[in-house]
Amino acid sequence: MDPLKEMFNKAFYQHFARTFAEADKNFNAGTFVKDVTRGMETLSLNGRLRNTSVMLHKHLPADYKKAIEVIYKAAPSLKTGYTALVLPDFVALYGKEHFSLSMEALKHFTTLGSSEFAIREFLKTDLEKTLKVMNKWAEDKNHHVRRLASEGSRPRLPWSFKLAEVIKTPSLTQSILEKLNADEELYVRKSVANHLNDHSKDNTAYMLQLVKTWDKSHRHTAWIIKHAIRTLIKKGDRDALQIFGFGEDARVRLKQFSTDKNKLRLGDTLQFSFRLASESNAPQKLVIDYAVHYAKSSGALSKKVFKLKEVTLPPGETVDITKKQLFQDLTTRKHYAGKHVLEIFVNGKALGSKDFRLEA
Predict the structure, then answer these.
(1) Do 219 and 309 fall into the same domain?
(2) How many domains does the chain have?
């Protein structure tokens, strides 16, 4: 059973219904709870969210404007966080014929949870008109609203559909990103970096050219760019590495590369260490990564790159690295018995590898 879906449990719905009954004397709390909890055991997390929106529509005034008025009254007393996504979801489902009213509602409700998924329904219906509003949001004083401008227009937002037109023409969101490329809020900067990272998967040259025009001397802008190019850095993309001066092949030698075991079981930790020795007569900027080539069920290998550190290595000097890697199943990765490979990368170039086995 998915424990996350229990955010939408009977206790939640009883509080939710009482809140709406206080906002609208015609709202029947008891009937709503019966309707919304009927068969909910079979619904997923997102299924429960959508069912809540549908049942809310059933019990609120049929007139959309009046229904939104009730939601505005109820909203301050509702729980914030994921369950608050019901409010923008309601807007996405029933508010397309009331564009201006719905835009104001999404702007307001995003401060309680997020309207990032709901706004995409409007982008799908009228991209140009919706982006015009989102450009204004990018200048809003509330950081939740500014973040919505970037997050909602991401080409590849997780848990949502792709914005095919933005993938085809990435410059459609450029003005939003440029308004936010030095934002003081980390919450916003993370979104801008993720938006750019999305672009890097479909429009690498465009994304790199864009960030090269930005002022890297500003610490917030530099942070965004570094996180935006992370996928390209892990792939050893020379143009991405060059942005921060890591584009040259490192003149270093990998020495004393060792692991503390060559066989391990699920739940074990693999410790590895190595030394990098400079073979240059000038300081070198190094970005040091490692990759684990995981065994798949088929026996083939799947590469996953991890960050280690960035250093400036003086001429003739060495740097010692030690790292531990835990091997346990995650929601995003299942481990399989068989040969695995550990590989060391410096400035995107592989310097050495070691095999080890994960036993059943």
Answers:
(1) no
(2) 2
Both tokens assigned to 25:
């004397």
> Are residue 127 and residue 156 in the same domain, yes or no?
yes
Q: Please report the sign of the dihedral spanned by the C-alpha atoms of residue 238, residue 243, residue 244, residue 245.
A: positive
Specify the residue for token string 């949870």.
113
- 110 φ/ψ angles, rounded to the nearest 5 degrees: -65, -20
Average pLDDT of the segment spanning 123-131: 98
Nearest by Cα to 176 from 139, 223, 227: 139
* Neighbouring residues of 191: CB distance < 8 A, sequence distance ≥ 6: 147, 150, 151, 154, 180
Instruction: Give the type of residue at 185.
Output: E
Per DSSP, the residues of 26-78 read T--HHHHHHHHHTTGGG--HHHHHHHHHHHHHHHS-SSHHHHHHHHHHHGGGS
146 and 270 co-located in one domain: no
Residue 17's CB: how many other CB atoms inside 10 A?
23
Strand order, beta sheet including 269-278: 252-259, 269-278, 318-326
| β pairing state of 263-265 and 349-359 | parallel
- The kind and range of the H/E element at 104 are helix 99-109
The pLDDT value recorded for residue 2 is: 59
> Residue 1's pLDDT band (boundaries 50, 70, 90)?
very low
Rounded distance, CA 165 to CA 172, Å? 8
Structural domain that includes position 342: 252-359
Tell me the average pLDDT across 176-191.
98
Quote the DSSP letter at residue 180.
Answer: S
One domain, residues 315 and 210: no
What three-state secondary structure class fits 141?
A: coil
202 shares its domain with 300? no
In contact, 85 and 114? CB cutoff 8 Å: yes
Q: Identify the CATH number of the domain in which residue 221 sits.
A: 1.25.40.290
